[in-house]
C-alpha cells in the first residue's frame, strides 16, 4: 500500500511518445514499394539515393565480400556509419549481429533509423535474439518461414525480410523462403478457430500472432525480400511473389554500372507487374554480379540457416 | 450522394493504408502510377513514403507534368508526410534533382522533427475535424517553415504548422492513414465532393 500523498494527483498531459509500435511499424510502411540498398561508403550512399533508393544499409563489406574474406563479421565502424548518415537524407539502416544487443545499443546511439539483426554477420548468441522492445529504434529481422517471422515479431521486430542467400547473386533461396512464408499464411487462412491453437504450437509462435495473421491474411508488419537480388527481373519476381519491397545487397555495387543498375531495379520494383517497363529497365545494364550456385555452398557458409 | 473517384499515387509508400481510409470515408479508390490513371481520377492522394524516391519516379515516368497540370487546374489533392512535401511550392533543403508538384504556397523542411528515434505520437487538434483531437503519428516528419497568405494552418505542433489547407489542397505532416481514425480522410472526401458539385 502506498501512503497517500498530501500533493494533489497529477495527471500527465499526453505528450509526445516515441518508440511506439505504431511509429516503428509505421516507418516500415513508408518504405513499401521501394528498394533498400547496401552501401559501404558515403559516395555509394549518394549514388543509391540519386537512383531512388528508399533507404540504405550502411555496412563495411557487402555480403559477397564477407563471403570472400571469411572470419568474424561484426557491426560496422561507427565513423563509417556516421559518414553515411551525414551523406544522405533518406533513412539509414545498419546491421547488428544476432543476439548482440550491445551492438544494437551502439547503433541506436548513433541514430540509425532501423537496425537489421542480421544473419549475414556472425551470430553472437546461439540461443537468443535481442529483446527488440528494449529499443526506440525499430528492428528488421530475417525469416525463412512463418514461425521464424512470428517469433521475431514476438521479440519486437517491426519489419520482416524473407531471407535469401546473401552475397550469391542467386535468387533461388529468396524465392524458396518467400513462397514458404506466403504458403504458410495461406494455410492459416483456411483453418478454423479450434485449429489455430495447434497451428500456433506447430509454428512455435504465440497464439495471438497466429490468430492475427489468420485474420489479416498477411503479417502484422511489412514484409520485404532480401538476399540474392541481382537484376530488375529478380526484384519484380520477388514483388510478384508477395514481397512489399526488396533489399539489394551485393547486386548493385558488385555490378558493372551501379548507378544505372540501381535506378533500373527501383523502376522494376515500382512497376513489378508491367513486363514492358521491366524489359526497358533491363536493357544495357552491363555485367551483373558474378553469381554463386547455392548448391555448392558448404553448410557452414549458408547464412539463411543462421537464426531460428 | 455521389461517390468521388480518388486516386492514390502508388509509386511508393503507404498506399494500402490510404486505400483503406479513403474507402471507409466513402470514396472509390484506384492506384495511380501512369498519366492515364491520373486522368481517370477526380482527386488524388499523395501518400507517405520517401519524397526523393517519389519525385524521381514521377519524373522518370512522365507523371510530374500531368500532376502539376491537374493540381493547377483545380484537382483536389491531399498529401501526408512525403505527400505534404510533394504539394509544397518550395522545399527548404531539397536533394539534388528533387522536384515537387507544388500547389500549396508554403515552404517545408524535410525530416524537421528528427530521425526515426525522434518519431512520435501526440494528440492533435485539427481545425475542421470535429470530435476531439486526432492521433498525430509523426514519422521522420516534415514541418511547415512558413506559409503564404493563401494557405491556412489547420493544426500547429510545437510552434510549427503540421496541417495546411489551401483551397482544394490539403497536407499533413502526420499520418492519419496509420491510425484507423478516418476523420481527416472524411474531411478530404468532403472537399472532393464540394469540388465536384
From TrEMBL, chain A:
Residues 1-21 are annotated as: Disordered. Coiled coil: none annotated. Pfam families: SOR_SNZ. Pathway: Cofactor biosynthesis; pyridoxal 5'-phosphate biosynthesis. SUPFAM superfamilies: Ribulose-phoshate binding barrel. D-ribose 5-phosphate binds at residues 38, 167, 228, 249-250. InterPro entries: Aldolase_TIM, PdxS/SNZ, PdxS/SNZ_N, RibuloseP-bd_barrel. The keyword Oxidoreductase does not apply. Keywords: Lyase, Pyridoxal phosphate, Schiff base. It catalyses: aldehydo-D-ribose 5-phosphate + D-glyceraldehyde 3-phosphate + L-glutamine = pyridoxal 5'-phosphate + L-glutamate + phosphate + 3 H2O + H(+). D-glyceraldehyde 3-phosphate binds at residue 179. CDD domains: pdxS (cd04727). Its EC number is 4.3.3.6. Residues 21-226 form the PdxS/SNZ N-terminal domain. The active site is at 95 (schiff-base intermediate with d-ribose 5-phosphate). Belongs to the PdxS/SNZ family. Catalyzes the formation of pyridoxal 5'-phosphate from ribose 5-phosphate (RBP), glyceraldehyde 3-phosphate (G3P) and ammonia. The ammonia is provided by the PdxT subunit. Can also use ribulose 5-phosphate and dihydroxyacetone phosphate as substrates, resulting from enzyme-catalyzed isomerization of RBP and G3P, respectively. In the presence of PdxT, forms a dodecamer of heterodimers. This is Pyridoxal 5'-phosphate synthase subunit PdxS. It comes from Streptomyces daqingensis.
Automatic annotation (TrEMBL), chain B:
Keywords: Glutamine amidotransferase, Hydrolase, Lyase, Pyridoxal phosphate. Coiled coil: none annotated. The active site is at 81 (nucleophile), 175 (charge relay system), 177 (charge relay system). Pfam families: SNO. InterPro entries: Class_I_gatase-like (IPR029062), PdxT/SNO (IPR002161), PdxT/SNO_CS (IPR021196). It catalyses: aldehydo-D-ribose 5-phosphate + D-glyceraldehyde 3-phosphate + L-glutamine = pyridoxal 5'-phosphate + L-glutamate + phosphate + 3 H2O + H(+); L-glutamine + H2O = L-glutamate + NH4(+). L-glutamine binds at residues 49-51, 110, 139-140. Transmembrane segments: none annotated. Belongs to the glutaminase PdxT/SNO family. Catalyzes the hydrolysis of glutamine to glutamate and ammonia as part of the biosynthesis of pyridoxal 5'-phosphate. The resulting ammonia molecule is channeled to the active site of PdxS. In the presence of PdxS, forms a dodecamer of heterodimers. Only shows activity in the heterodimer. This is Pyridoxal 5'-phosphate synthase subunit PdxT. It comes from Streptomyces daqingensis. The gene is pdxT.
Amino acid at each position: 500500500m502506498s501512503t497517500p500523498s498530501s500533493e494533489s494527483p497529477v495527471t500527465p498531459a499526453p505528450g509526445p511518445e516515441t518508440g511506439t509500435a505504431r511509429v516503428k511499424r509505421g516507418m516500415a510502411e513508408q518504405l513499401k514499394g521501394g528498394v533498400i540498398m547496401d552501401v559501404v561508403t558515403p559516395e555509394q550512399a549518394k549514388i543509391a539515393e540519386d537512383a531512388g533508393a528508399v533507404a540504405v544499409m550502411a555496412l563495411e563489406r557487402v555480403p559477397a565480400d564477407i563471403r570472400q574474406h571469411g572470419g568474424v563479421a561484426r557491426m560496422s565502424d561507427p565513423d563509417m556509419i556516421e559518414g553515411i548518415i551525414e551523406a544522405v537524407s533518406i533513412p539509414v539502416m545498419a546491421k547488428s549481429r544476432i543476439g548482440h544487443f550491445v551492438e544494437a545499443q551502439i547503433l541506436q546511439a548513433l541514430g540509425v533509423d532501423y537496425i537489421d539483426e542480421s544473419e549475414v554477420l556472425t551470430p553472437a548468441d546461439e540461443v537468443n535474439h535481442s529483446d527488440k522492445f528494449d529499443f526506440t529504434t525499430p528492428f528488421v529481422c530475417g525469416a525463412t518461414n512463418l514461425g521464424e517471422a512470428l517469433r521475431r515479431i514476438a521479440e519486437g521486430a517491426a519489419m520482416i525480410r524473407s531471407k535469401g542467400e546473401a552475397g550469391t547473386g542467386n535468387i533461388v533461396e529468396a524465392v524458396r523462403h518467400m513462397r514458404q512464408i506466403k504458403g504458410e499464411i495461406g494455410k492459416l487462412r483456411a483453418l478454423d478457430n479450434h485449429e489455430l491453437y495447434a497451428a500456433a504450437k506447430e509454428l512455435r509462435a504465440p497464439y495471438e500472432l497466429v490468430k492475427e495473421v489468420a485474420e489479416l491474411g498477411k503479417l502484422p508488419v511489412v514484409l520485404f525480400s532480401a538476399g540474392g537480388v541481382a537484376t530488375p527481373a529478380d526484384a519484380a519476381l520477388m514483388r510478384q511473389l508477395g514481397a512489399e519491397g526488396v533489399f539489394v545487397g551485393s547486386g548493385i555495387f558488385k555490378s558493372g554500372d551501379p548507378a544505372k543498375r540501381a535506378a533500373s531495379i527501383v523502376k522494376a520494383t515500382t512497376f513489378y507487374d508491367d513486363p514492358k517497363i521491366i524489359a526497358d529497365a533491363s536493357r544495357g545494364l552491363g555485367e551483373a554480379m558474378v553469381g554463386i550456385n547455392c548448391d555448392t555452398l558448404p553448410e557452414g557458409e549458408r547464412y539463411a540457416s543462421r537464426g531460428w | 450522394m455521389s461517390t468521388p473517384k480518388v486516386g492514390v499515387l502508388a509509386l511508393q509508400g503507404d498506399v494500402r493504408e490510404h486505400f483503406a481510409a479513403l474507402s471507409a470515408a466513402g470514396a472509390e479508390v484506384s492506384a495511380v502510377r501512369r498519366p492515364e490513371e491520373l486522368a481517370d481520377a477526380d482527386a488524388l492522394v499523395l501518400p507517405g513514403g520517401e519524397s526523393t524516391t517519389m519525385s524521381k519516379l514521377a519524373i522518370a515516368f512522365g507523371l510530374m507534368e500531368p500532376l502539376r497540370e491537374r493540381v493547377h487546374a483545380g484537382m483536389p489533392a491531399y498529401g501526408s508526410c512525403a505527400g505534404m512535401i510533394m504539394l509544397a511550392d518550395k522545399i527548404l533543403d531539397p536533394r539534388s534533382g528533387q522536384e515537387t508538384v507544388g500547389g500549396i504556397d508554403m515552404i517545408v523542411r524535410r525530416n524537421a522533427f528528427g530521425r526515426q528515434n525522434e518519431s512520435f505520437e501526440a494528440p492533435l487538434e485539427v481545425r475542421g475535424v470535429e470530435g476531439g483531437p486526432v492521433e498525430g503519428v509523426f514519422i521522420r516528419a516534415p514541418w511547415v517553415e512558413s506559409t503564404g497568405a493563401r494557405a491556412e494552418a489547420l493544426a500547429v505542433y510545437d510552434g510549427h504548422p503540421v496541417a495546411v489547407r489551401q483551397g482544394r489542397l490539403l497536407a499533413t505532416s502526420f499520418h492519419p492513414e496509420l491510425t484507423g481514425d478516418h476523420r481527416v480522410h472524411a474531411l478530404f472526401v468532403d472537399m472532393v465532393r464540394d469540388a465536384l458539385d
